[in-house]
Amino acid sequence: MLQRRFGVSLAAGYACVGRGVMTRICRGPWWTVPFLHLGRIRNILAPFPGESVPFTVENHPYRDPFGRETVTFVRTFAYPDRARPGRFDATMIRGRDGRIVDYLGTHQHLAVDLHLAAEPDGSLHLTSDAQRFHAGPLSFRFPMLFSGRADLRESFDDDAGEYVIRLEVRNRLFGFLFGYEGRFRCEFPPAGDGPPAHVLPVQHERRE
After folding, report:
1. Cα 104–207–136 angle (5° rounding)?
2. CA distance 7 to 3
3. Which of 61, 116, 128, 183 could pair with 150 as two cysteines, CB 3.0-4.6 Å apart?
4. How many beta carbons lie within 10 A of that of residue 81, not counting itself?
5. DSSP 3-state of 193
6. Is the pTM of this model over 0.90?
């Protein structure tokens, strides 16, 4: 089931839409709040804590303006007590040198290297590494002192027929910044003529 979920591609011809509940969304101490709200402006992280928060995750394959095959990873959190949902937007490519690169946010300002591994129990373990900031003429390696590293584990519960996800984002000096855990079920609709407009970034970044 994990192979099917992460097998979304143009050649496979299908997308993946998951719907479920985040049993817990949490954030770090009070001083992390400005950092999280800054990310919220560009749909990078969801800054509000909560419990039993309905969410969706949308993975659609497409070819970006630079000819690269791309898959969306758009997470929407429908907080019951807030009028505006939280969004965490990302688009993933395989870079020219074989690296997996995740562009974060609506404008792809952050390019993050990802490492993926299959665990002995069949789960997927994803960790983030180096980050680069791109905006107009600016382009530099983002100092990890001011950012966080993601540690994500996703598995499939055969008995419940649900995917299980757990994410933590930590800074090496300041500790825990943000995290969530939840369960969801997936549908695999045909990819069709392209992804819906609401999951596409406002702009695409060529630099990896």
Report:
1. 80
2. 6
3. 128
4. 7
5. coil
6. yes
In which element (H, E) is residue 146 found? none
* Burial of residue 103, with CB atoms counted within 10 A of its CB: 0-12 exposed, 13-18 middle, 19 or more buried: buried
- Give the domain ranges of the chain: 2-12+19-147+160-190
**Tens of each residue's pLDDT in the chain, 208 residues:** 999 999 999 999 999 999 999 999 998 887 777 777 677 778 887 778 999 999 999 999 999 999 999 999 999 999 998 888 999 999 999 998 889 999 999 999 999 999 999 999 999 999 999 999 999 999 999 888 778 899 999 999 999 999 999 999 998 888 898 999 999 999 999 998 889 999 999 999 999 9
- Cα(first)–Cα(last) distance of the chain, in Å? 30
As given in the structure block, the two tokens for residue 106 are 């609506």
Classify domain 2-12+19-147+160-190 by CATH architecture: Beta Barrel (2.40)
* Closest listed residue to residue 56, CA positions, set 175, 165, 153: 165
